[in-house]
Amino acid sequence: MTDTIVYQHIGSAEPTIDVHRLKINDYWLDTTGGGGVLKKCASISPITWDTIVSGGGSAEWGYIGGTLSAQTDLNNAFGGKEPANANIQTHVTSQHAPSGAQVNADITKAEIEAKLTGAISSHTHSGGSDSEITVLKVGDTSNATTTYADATGLSFTPLADKEYIIEAWIRYTTTATTVGIKLSCNGPSGQAFVSSLFNSALVTSGMSGGGGNAYNTGVATASAQATTDNLAMLNILFKNGSNATIFIIRFAAETTGTITIKDGSVLRYRQVN
């Protein structure tokens, strides 16, 4: 609308000729019911009114009052903007997350770390090899025989067809300095190769040790430097076959006595291809 409408009468009481000097084309803002409906006097005898809600072919409003349901042009205009769509309504009112979903703010560091375990075969660093991984032994493991036994905890699971550099620093005790130690390993069947070498200090002086080119083989030291806190060092080159099962360090006593692999011993390995 281009003209400003000035209404001459306002209130809930209908204007009259005698009291309000009503004339044709006078505007009345009818406030009945607490709303406001703009009307225009169409005739004097009898008094009739035109409700001002539109002009021309499209809906126009200078003032909107009363209940929403009374605004027929307004309702019709809004109704034509977006037809009813069952898919939209279903989406708006539906639940967007699973009923058991956890709030992001409630996720703990421990929960994330629990998921980030194990090796990822597709993950590599520059140069084509993985970072070194260190395994710390927790608790002691004893062997009172000359037959190889697992050094529990000093293990990992190699990927199929991959080669590894493996190192171990073994803290051990012995029941007597005359009882030496044997070190070797065991792993997945069908390996391409395994080559090992270890050494440890003797009770007299110097170093002694042995090596092997198979699982559970090697030469023992003839003695130990002391009965407690001895250190043996083991180096292994290993290439796996098609079986991705556990690789573990093994040990035994050189003669009658007990060898104990101590808490705090360390295994370190690195994939090289």
Overview of the structural elements:
This protein has 273 residues and is mainly beta. It folds into two domains: 9-79, Ribosomal Protein L25, Chain P (Beta Barrel); 133-271, Sandwich (Jelly Rolls), CATH 2.60.120. Helices cover 10% and strands 35% of the residues. Strands 7, 8, 10, 12, 13, 14, 16 and 17 form an eight-stranded antiparallel sheet that branches. It starts with 8 loop residues before the first strand and ends with a strand. The model is unreliable at 54-61 (pLDDT under 50).
Q: What's the helical proportion of residues?
A: under 10%
Give the end-to-end Cα distance, rounded to a whole number of Å. Answer: 80 Å
How much of the sequence is in beta strands?
35-45%
Number of helices: 4
Supply database-style keywords.
Ribosomal Protein L25, Chain P; 2 domains; rod-shaped; mainly beta; Jelly Rolls; 4 helices; 4-stranded mixed beta sheet; 273 residues
Topology:
Layout: E1 9-11, H1 17-20, E2 27-30, E3 37-43, E4 48-51, E5 54-55, E6 58-59, H2 72-79, H3 86-93, H4 109-115, E7 133-136, E8 141-143, E9 149-156, E10 163-174, E11 181-186, E12 193-201, E13 207-212, E14 230-239, E15 247-253, E16 259-261, E17 266-271
Parallel strand pairs: 1-2
Antiparallel strand pairs: 2-3, 3-4, 5-6, 7-17, 8-16, 9-15, 10-14, 10-16, 10-17, 11-15, 12-13, 12-14
Short description:
The protein is 10% helix and 35% strand. The chain has 2 domains: 71 residues, Ribosomal Protein L25, Chain P, CATH 2.40.240; 139 residues, Sandwich (Jelly Rolls), CATH 2.60.120.
